[in-house]
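The instructor's notes for this session suggest beginning with a concrete chain rather than abstract definitions. Hand out the sequence below and ask the class to guess, before any prediction is shown, which regions might be ordered.
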Amino acid sequence: MESRTTLPAATWTRDAATPPKRDVWQAMARGLRCRCPNCGEGKIFRAFLKVADNCSVCGQDFSGHRADDLPAYLVIVIVGHIVVPIALWIETNYSPPVALQLAFYLPVTLISSLLLLQPVKGAVVALQWAFRMHGFDETRPEDEEEGTLAKLNVNSLK
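After discussion, reveal the predicted structure:
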């Protein structure tokens, strides 16, 4: 008869020395002002939507951020929730010509979207920094990819 041994289930635990928590609201406020979420002094962008590699004041590394398309989606939601009710209210109460509506709504939508895109992206990067997401987690080993489980070395019993 073959003897079977059960191994304990592998569990993930964080090191005993957990890093201090970061203030999410302060980081997002700094990100909305396009400032470094760590020190609040340095700029987070080197161009309109290009995130700097690191902060010029404190040296915080921004190269690991993954904002992707979230800022654009958030801007669409924000601008849409502002412009659409105004458009419906004006159309319902005043019924202006379509050409006049387009002459108003299109520039307002375009300008407000461009004005909001950079601060929203700064807030998203700051949110990732505050939650230690992606490249902002200094406790993760360099050779371990994010989102993958570490390979478990289980010695087989003889």
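Then share the key points. The longest helix spans residues 98-130. Confidence is low (pLDDT under 50) at residues 149-158.
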